[in-house]
Every structure is written in structure tokens, then in C-alpha cells.
Amino acid sequence: MAETVEAYYSLQSDYCYFLLDRLLWLEGQGVTVSVRPVLGGVLRIPERFRNRDAMEQHYFKVDTARTAAFLGIPYAYPDPSPIAFEPGSLWIAAPEQSRVEHLYRLFVGAVRAGRGLAFLDQVMRLLWDGTTPGWNTGDHLSSAIRRADLDVDEILKANPWESVSIDLEDNAQSMLDSGHWGVPLIVARGEPFYGQDRFDQLLWRLGLASAGKASGEKP
């Protein structure tokens, strides 16, 4: 029987971006990767982020830059961030989130169309590889969607926010039921693997481990 894993994935997460190439590689090994979109933690579970301090934020910046360098992938924080934050705050979301709603209508719509990984292959790079500041202007996003063999207007028409938000809530609850709240989270054979740095253990559990993949190298 073909292996299937569930990948709970946020467009706001640096670490989800770091995992992208390995998810694509995993699918190439004959494993079905079922993408489960979830909102960023500051929107999904804001109570966990209200008391974060400057030291944690500084370490986060150091660690994400170091992880990208270790994996050998281009990386820069999105400009603008998909999530709008309260001015002067650390990880506290603003009430209005138009970019999030737009992106997640596209993301969930792509998953519903069976093109979840293809969407991430284009859009996550647009957001996170540092080559496209102002990714939300012009035709940057629509061009990325076309490269994933999807159409922005068709997706938006078929996937209103009211419908998309139901999927996001269901995915968030399913994530908690699986045993963790953070992303990226891969669930395989009922077992949760939290964090991009647990990919080697996932491969080991699936009997797919190799020296390169276990060390964290880009496939």
C-alpha cells in the first residue's frame, strides 16, 4: 500500500519554507504528501505568543538565518509579511488580515484542486527566497499561481473566505488531535513529527533514511 503523510503547513513559517524541498523530494519517492493548510500561530493560537520577549525574537532571527545557510537555500523574511502585526509588538497580529485571507483562499483552493505542493513550490519561494520584495504588488503572485497550473480568478471565485475558514479550523483541530500545535508538523502512521529538523526521523520511520537526507541536506 502506498504511504501517505499529512503535512500541516503555514505560509507564515520560515521553518515550513525550509522543509519545502524535502517534501517535494518525499513525494518523488512515491509517498503521498497530503498538505493541510493552517494559519500562522499568532492567528491560530494567539495566547501562546502574547508573552514572547525580545531575547526569543533575537534567537529566532539568528536561528532562521543559520538554518537557511546550513540547508543552502536562499532566504529572507517576506516583504511585506503575510501577517500584519500590531505596530511595535512582538508576534501580536493586527485585527485586519487582508493578505492572509487572500493568500489562504489561494492556498486552500490549490489544495482542493489537488495542487497543494505545486502551489507551495511557487508561492513559498516567492514569499521567502528574498528575490521579490513587494510580492503582493503587480503580477508577482498571479504569475506564481500560473506556474503552478492554476488561475487566481478561478480559485478566488470557487473558494470564498467563509468556506476556506472552515477548512482551516478543521485542520487546526486535527493538528491538535494528532499531538502537537506547531508547524511544520508531519503526521505519519499516526505519529507526529514536529519541526523541519525531524525530517530525518520521519524518513527513518518510513524506511527511507539516507545519509544526505538524515543530515538535513537539500535533496
Strands, helices and their partners?
Blueprint: E1 4-9, H1 14-28, E2 32-37, H2 41-44, H3 54-71, H4 98-112, H5 116-128, H6 140-147, H7 152-158, H8 161-178, E3 185-188, E4 191-194, H9 199-206, H10 211-214
Parallel strand pairs: 1-2
Antiparallel strand pairs: 1-3, 3-4
Helix pairs in contact: 1-5, 4-5, 4-7, 4-8, 5-6
Contiguous runs where pLDDT drops below 50 for at least 5 residues: 211-216
Give the integer mean of the pLDDT values: 93
CATH superfamily: Glutaredoxin
Number of helices: 10
Class by SSE composition: alpha+beta
In CATH, the architecture is 3-Layer(aba) Sandwich
Can you count the beta strands?
Answer: 4
Q: Class in CATH? A: Alpha Beta
* Global shape: globular
Task: Please indicate the count of domains.
Answer: 1
Cα distance, first to last residue? 24 Å
Order of helices and strands: EHEHHHHHHHEEHH
* Biggest sheet layout: 4 strands, mixed
What is the radius of gyration computed over CA atoms, rounded to a whole number of angstroms?
17 Å
What fraction of residues sit in β-strands?
5-15%
Main β-sheet, spatial strand arrangement: 2-1-3-4
Helix content: 40-55%
Report the CATH topology name: Glutaredoxin
